[in-house]
Amino acid sequence: MTTLIHRLKQIRAYIQTAEITYHRQPNSVLLLAVSKTKPATMIAEAYQAGQRHFGENYLQEALSKQQALGAFDITWHFIGPIQSNKTKAIANHFDWVHSVDNLKTARRLSKQRPPHLAPLNICLQVNISDEASKSGIHLHELADLCEQVAILPNIKLRGVMAIPAPSFSFEQQCQPYKILYQAVKSLNKPELDTFSFGMSDDLNAAITEGATMVRIGTALFGARQ
To answer: Does the pTM exceed 0.90?
Structure first.
C-alpha cells in the first residue's frame, strides 16, 4: 500500500469515527480531496482507490489535469478565488464552485454555463471571521445574496463555504461554523444542503457543526511544494 492510499484510508476512517462521535448520520460527510499543486498521477492514484471528488484552486493547472484525466469520471470542484476573465472556463469545466462571493460572478457563471451540462452547483463563500485578507461576503449579506443567486438559470445554489481564522481550541474552532450553520438554517431553504466546512486542522469541529463536505489537502497528499 502506498503512502497516499494509506492516508486516504486513514482519513476516511477518521471521518466515519467523527460521524459516530458527533452524532452525524453515517456517510453524511463527503471527502473533497484538495489536489492543488499535486500532479495528475496522484489524483489518478486516489481515484483508483475510490476517491471521486477533487478540489482545485488554480484554473490553468486544473484544466491541464482535467485533460490528462479525461478518461476518469471525476467530479471537479473549483475552490479558489474567481477572476472575471476565468468564469467562462470555470463554468465549462467544473461541476461545483465553492468560492462565489458576489452577484456579478454568479451571473457570469450562470450566463456562461453551457445549457447541455447539468446546472453548476454553487456555494457562497462567507468570510465568517471578518478577516481583511480573505474573500467572502459578510454574514449579514448572506440572505440577500442567496435570494439573488437562487433565481439564476443554469446554476444551482447548494449552500455555503467558509475558512475561519485559525484557532487551536476545539471550542473556538466550532464557534464560527456553528454561527454560519445556524444562519443558513434560519433562512428556511431546504435546498441549501451543503456546508463546505473544515480542512485538515479543524476537521472535528467542522463535522461537529454540520459539515457535509470537508476539504482535505495536506493530510492526504502531503505538504505542498
So the answer is: yes
